[in-house]
Amino acid sequence: MTVATAESVLSIKDLNVEFSGFKALKGVNLEVYDGEIVTIIGPNGAGKSTLLDAIVSKSPVASGHVYYHGKDITNKLPYEIARMGIGRKFQNPNVYNELTVFDNILLALKGTHGIFSSIMAKLTKAKKGKIYDVLERTGLLDQAFDEVSSLSHGQKQWVEIAMVLAQDPSIVLLDEPTAGMTTEETHATGEIIKSIAKSHSIVVIEHDMEFVKQIAERIVVLHQGAVLAEGSVQEVQSNPKVIEVYLGRETINAAA
Amino acid sequence: MSNVVMGYKQSTFPKKLAIVSGIILLAFVILPFMVGSFQLSLMSKLLLFGALAVSLDLVWGFTGILSFAHGVFFTLGGYAVAYYLKLNLSAENNNYGGDIPDFMVWNGLEVLPWFIAPLKYFPVAFLAMIGVPALFAYITGSFIFRSKVSGVYITIITLALSSALTTFFISQQAYTGGTNGITDVSKLSVFGMVIPPVGLYFLILAYTAFVVALAWWLTQSNFGLILRSINENENRISFLGYDVAQYKIFVWTLSAALAGVAGGLFVPLNRFISPVYLAVAFGTQVVIWVAIGGRGTIVGPLAAAMILGQVQNSAERVTQDWNLIVGILLLVVVLFIPNGLMSLVPKKFSLSNLSKPKPMPETVVKPVAPSVSEPQPEPVQRGS
Ligand SMILES: Nc1ncnc2c1ncn2[C@@H]1O[C@H](COP(=O)(O)OP(=O)(O)O)[C@@H](O)[C@H]1O
Ligand SMILES: [Mg+2]
Where is this region: Disordered (chain B) (predicted)? Predict the structure, then answer.
């Protein structure tokens, strides 16, 4: 077993993911250190979502390893990975539409998640406090008792983020958290993410270069299932390989 | 203050629900003194079908697992009690002297099989009535829900279980009584005294009330919220750290035990049990009760089982085409009222609503500081 660097929270080694012969990830390596924000960018179909899927065992890993705090978690069951402290927000809002916002957060709340405790559970002051705290941080207090189906797309994204926060994970994986949001909503989301970063490590997939500049510390560029470049916003934007991949693309040109 | 939150039990039993269920229960308590013995035994049977429907509602209505195997759990509990009652026939009622049931003798058995003999004792039979269906469910459930099988394939497995067990019970004639099943069993008695039909009725009423109360209590808790979430999107909840398979195995096993006891109580009433109740046709009937009553409503499946059972009983005397009528009714419900008859009842009267005090607006604590994401609202102009 490879021993990862001391303060490395997540360590991905030579990761390969295949979908019936199609290589979606080809030997990806990535380290995520304690308390940092790693932003993953790359064209559509580059394998960004697949990378997060492989970390939480949504997609099966063909070869390679995922280490979490030095422990091999490759292909463990999704619920085991979640219990270890890895929280995931999906690309498309993946929330419980028929339940209220409050109940969605309640479900996500960190706890034992055992059958007996779920039957006997009482809604304590402490739990309510935690839920309201998460709702306040994501600006959802006024919608607490609305059915999620009645919310806008942007608000549903926040419900997802709030669910991840309620899990109190040590690392947060966010897949396109600002998709479908207005400029103000996007900016507000950036501020939420920065506030999360004070106590969590974050991996975030993003398209919007304005947003990336707002939050980014370290950027990883994925292209055709492999890491193309890595570095600060400036380093990545001036990297000739990245320019070539993004040639003619509005987002990076506008941002550059 | 948290009363509007679905996922948690109320600290006190809701008053409105207590009144409504009290009135209904009272009607059932008075009933035996108003009807004849035939109607009383029919009511007893219908209550058991109601309990069976509620047990399936936990699995299908709340958790989303469509099962045609609930007749199997029912029947396994039934056979446990049938062996007990058969082995306790007094010597003069048994053609072969009371040691070995008649059907075993007819099929060439000379000694009582060792695995059936202990069922002569009440505690063993009682445990078997609950334990055999539960264990069977636990084993099949562990296999099904821990595997990669999902959705419609699970339903196909339940169909296969039902057919396989029917065939097995019919083929093992010496041990099971074959197609006829176990007939001419003794009456149920305690301390040498036979329980009269009214007594049996109250026993069954108490059990059905228990099943309804248990189902309500479980589904009002955080556990119920988790079952609903599994139903809506079981993938998502596993990424929140829930072991979905564990929850499914639990509710599947619990439901089987509840169905098994209903089957166990059915035998002293019916005085026989046979593979008819193992077969897919009976399992389908249970599914139809739940579908017509309304999935995930507890009261709907209970009422549908009892009403359809009553109608079936009356219709069978007039026409042989009862199944055709049910088929048409099911078609109408599925096409026009996909959420079942309970969805026609105003929300106001639904079980979950009766148990819930009016939402209190002050439940939402206003943020002390404006949240990052929302602009300060303009002060509201108050018109007078
Ligand atoms: N479950 C799947 N089955 C088959 N192919 C998939 C699956 N998930 C992703 N892919 C393929 O893998 C590639 C990478 O997809 P994805 O990771 O979603 O890209 P993106 O970088 O846009 O998030 C795409 O070509 C996509 O079609
Ligand atoms: Mg993607």
Answer: 355-384
